[in-house]
Amino acid sequence: MNSERERTYHHGDLRRVILDAALDVIATNGPGALSLRDLARRAGVSHAAPGHHFKDRTGLLTAVAAEGYALFADALAGAPDLRERGVAYVRFAATHPAHFQVMFQPDLHRTDDPDLLAARARATEALRAGVADLAPAGRGEDDRLAGVAAWSLAHGFATLLLSGNLADAMEGRDPEEAFRSLAALIFAPENGRDG
Questions:
Q1: Can you give the pLDDT at residue 13?
Q2: Inter-axis angle of helices 114-132 and 57-77, to 10 degrees?
């Protein structure tokens, strides 16, 4: 009877339980450590149960990436300008390190998944909107290259921050404030030239 109650308990939100367990494993040990069998054990269900929700490991990682992009798009949408979108980018990476790791490794997930494509499109649009809001002098002649520059700055900073490579350079500074300063150097009016 106890096992019946356990199955009932997990039935309604087993997908979420497995996703949360996967996020814990990824954040601690990276995506390479992920195993559906281990996640089933952690969730207290049969080893086949995760397959009902995700089919396989790639399906699970695709769900992680799709959820990550949806959360990412929401985080970016509330930012008023490009610099604050970059801050939101860094904040997202720091608060969702497992999602962040999986989202930007297309070899881990199904890149043609409709949920993933829709969420990624929303995030991309939020980033592009930030570039479009820049004054022409602040973005140069090519909006796409300005977008790549902004993405490179935010993604590079977030990646270096998560990997611990900025510890010495940060000297105890708030990462969001440090990013704001860096973004001001790159996307200053006329790129720092007088008028």
A1: 83
A2: 30
Per-residue pLDDT tens for 86-117? 999 999 999 999 999 999 999 999 999 999 99
Lowest-confidence pick of 120-129, 143-152, 160-169:
143-152
Task: Convert 84-122 to b/e letters by CB count within 10 Å (16 or more is b).
Answer: bbbbbbbbbbeebbbbbbbbeeeebbbeebeebeebbeb
Q: What is the DSSP string of 1-12?
A: -HHHHHHHHHHT
Tell me the C-alpha distance between 116 and 45, whole Å. 27
Asked if residues 65 and 117 have their Cβ atoms less than 8 Å apart, the reply is no
